[in-house]
Amino acid sequence: MTLWSRILEALSRLAPGERLSSLFDYLRAPPERSVAFTIAVIALGAKMAKADGTVTRSEVAAFREVFTIPPDEEENAARVFDLARTDVAGFEEYAARIAAMFEDDAETLRDLLEGLFHIALADGDYHPAEDDFLHRVARIFRLDDRAFRSVKAQFVVDAAPDCYDVLGVTPDMDMDEIRDRWRQLVRDTHPDRMIARGLPEEAVKLAEKRLVAINRAWENIQAGTA
Question: Any idea what DSSP says for residue 122?
Answer without folding.
Answer: G
